[in-house]
Amino acid sequence: MDLWTSQPDDARNEWSSEDVTDYAGRSGDLANAVNATASNAIADLGTGNTYEVSSSIDTDSIVGLAGEDCTIVVNMEGIVLPMGGSGNDVVALQGVTFDLSETVDASILTTYGAVQDHLFVKDVTIEGKRGRQVNDGGQSHTFLVQVGPQGEAFVENFTATDGSTEVSGQDRGYAIGAGADPRHEGYAVWKDCDVRQFMGNGYYMQNAPGTSVLWNCKAVNNALTNMRLGADDIVIGGRAEVNSDYPYTEQVGTLLGGNGDQWGDVVGLTLVAEGDMWGSAGIRTWTGGSPGGEGGSIRNSTFHIRSGSAPAFRIHSDRNPNLELEDVMILDESGSSNTFDIADWVEDRSNAPGTVTLNGGVQIDANTGTTFQIGDNGTLTVPDGTDYTDTDLDAADIGVDATLTESDFPNYYFDYGDGDNGGGGDPAEWLDLGTDDEYSDVDNESGVLFWLKEDIGSIEARLSQNTDGQQTAYLRDSDADVVTQTDISNLSAGDTFVLAPSEGIDGSNTYSVTVDADGDHWDRGEDSSPNYEYEDDSVEVTYGVFTSGQSTTENVRYAVSEIAARDEVVDPDWLELGLDDDQSNPNNESGVLFWLQEDIDGIEARISQNTEGHRTAYLRDSGANVVTQTDISNLNAGDTFVLSPAGGIEGSNTYSVTVDADGDHWLRGEDSSPNFDYEDDIFQVTYGVYTSGQSTTENVRYAVNEIRDL
What we know:
By secondary structure, the protein is mainly beta.
């Protein structure tokens, strides 16, 4: 298995699992249940359940906790999952929030000795601050991912944004958010993770001989270093930031750096520094240490120094580091003495040389005293090959000066297939609309208004950080008429949705992307200090929108934090029927009932996520008579089947698409909170069907989650 390109949708389907829901409702120590599972099984937590753990979970060949929207209240001190060593082949965690509100301090995962084969983490959150302090002991690592020489790890949507506490007078040894130090030897990918406000580094990857990849990860307001890299580590996209909300007073927070072997590559990273708590530099290699830093490369990235008194770059160590920059945009508004300190800061510069190499495409707009302050043991190499040492230079002196604003910066988000390790992707693919700092409890439709500059196939948007309880997303035109809409009730903050009308979206027009809860109240994420207008080559976002009639404001950005214009039309003819959140084990035929609005040749349907063990699919008319049927025994969840009777299907009639196992029991995927009616130009899906005689319900959608005409 190559976890980072072909990870399982559900750990419970990839490895054996055992039901432990008898411990739901905090009915005992979950560790007892997990420790009692077979050595080759993970614990199935079910859906929406709450557990407590009051002792550590033992190591075994396969160890895992997997569920959907489950919570584990940590009622202990120490390490919940002290994994690693030759006894652990697989560790899997999925769909779990660890609640630290009832513990003084606890570490969630350590892997000293390393997991030998696979470590799989998906949709895991830590809520509550860690209390770990050096004088009180305890494990420094909060979530430590280490795999053996042949092992691989994939960590997706790991969130730990509450951080850890600070106690006056304690200098080191605070909690680390995410780590790989020191025994990670294999290959680990962290994708779409968010680590904030930890006192002992955000991502601490250095000192490990293996490779860690931070892919579209965020590190905000962590002390010491937000992203601390080691040998061959890679950053693809993401954000490292220290801003005016930095919560600590004794420890400062460098954005990016390392004091070990040369890191592999940093591509598409957004760096932001604000205030005076981002340390002695924004990006640095350490002097001395064990060992000193060797530097690395940064390309296709942006660095905005909004304020502060330190240099943005400080490059020197006893290992003569070289920082290479290519296609990097730097806006330094700090007014400090310099932007680059190259081997000029330390008293004994002979022991701490350093080099900065500009490989082309570097643009610098700085209001500092001088741009490059170069010591007598420092070197600046510019694109034409000229070396400078022991001098001060401005950007204009070497032809890299530019006039920049933050709106000039591209917004990076890399997905599968976006170039070499993400580096070749379209840097302007996502337009960043800022970060939520507030939320409101509302019942009205809200989002953003934008001017579309060119014809596109679809628009993709990301739900903002504080948005919750939403049901539907809309694309409206300049008259506030709905162009298309989609169900987003199953999505969480940070997830994306696509609005894809069948004919694409015409340019040179105004549109809005908005969200609501179908008239109910929902939590609307808000940025109360937006920097309108947000603009790229395709889209110009001009206002926040707070009604379905497109009432606008310049003072707030609502509900979506990023949007992206897509050239392709993304499956516009599929009618989405929601996602499964439940499953049952019937022996009766089940599916959906719909009104067909016009004549068509046939129907294609997609088997829903939790459906399994099926054999036959049927198209039945309004009298529940079989029009046609097809064998689907070889299909899996997510696969599609076609029902296409000779002569086609006559419109202006009611039909059902259903599935069964020819009288045997099967696993029926279910959406227990459907939003009937689902409608497009061809279909109006009105009910779930749970018998061959077309018994109906409005409360559940069964077995198929998408349909379209042929």
